[in-house]
Design a protein that fits this description.
It is a single chain. This protein is of the alpha/beta class. It has one domain: Nucleotidyltransferase, domain 5. Helices cover about 50% and strands about 20% of the residues. It contains 5 helices and 5 strands, in the order E-E-E-H-E-H-E-H-H-H. It is globular and about 45 Å long. The two termini are about 20 Å apart. It holds the Pfam family RuvC.
């Protein structure tokens, strides 16, 4: 099963693609950051949609995990990220990709065992769990953490339904 993890943003969107192997292990397939260089919100959303469509076409994930909106003190940023999440969710739905959503605390807890872990601890565990060298900023490692969380969550759901 191929799992896409997304760390949404209005200027940077982290993504990570992992594969759940038949033996239950996870392996990294791709990760990176979509850089959204546009000035207006409509132009940002259009560019995000274009780049995400290309990413979905290239990697063809079976399921996707998306980090929920983290409310910051900066309302302008929160609104822009909310718009980006809307585009992300719509495109995933249009591609018939099941969506799982997690809070930052749920992701940190699933990957590190500690819901208040800092970004470096999350990145360290992502590197360890996937045996991968991370490139780019922490958005990519956060997205891989979302993918790992989704893998664990769906594995548990499958076990409990059997």
């Amino acid at each position: 099963m191929k799992i896409l993890g997304i760390d949404p943003g209005s200027a940077l969107m982290g993504y990570g693609v992992i594969k759940e192997n038949t033996d239950g292990s996870l392996s990294e397939q791709a990760h990176g950051v979509l850089v959204i260089k546009a000035k207006t919100i409509p132009d940002k959303l259009n560019l995000l949609a274009h780049d995400l469509r290309e990413l979905l076409k290239k990697h063809q994930p079976d399921i996707a995990g998306v980090e929920t909106l983290f409310f910051s003190k900066n309302k302008k940023t929160a609104f822009e990220v909310a718009h980006a999440r809307g585009v992300i969710l719509l495109l995933l739905l249009e591609h018939n990709i099941p969506i799982y959503e997690y809070t930052p605390g749920q992701i940190k807890s699933a990957v590190t065992g500690y819901g208040n872990a800092d970004k470096e601890m999350v990145a360290k565990m992502v590197r360890h769990l996937l045996s991968v060298k991370l490139k780019g900023d922490d958005n990519a490692s956060d997205a891989l953490a979302v993918a790992i969380t989704t893998a664990h969550h769906t594995r548990l759901a499958r076990k409990s339904s059997n």
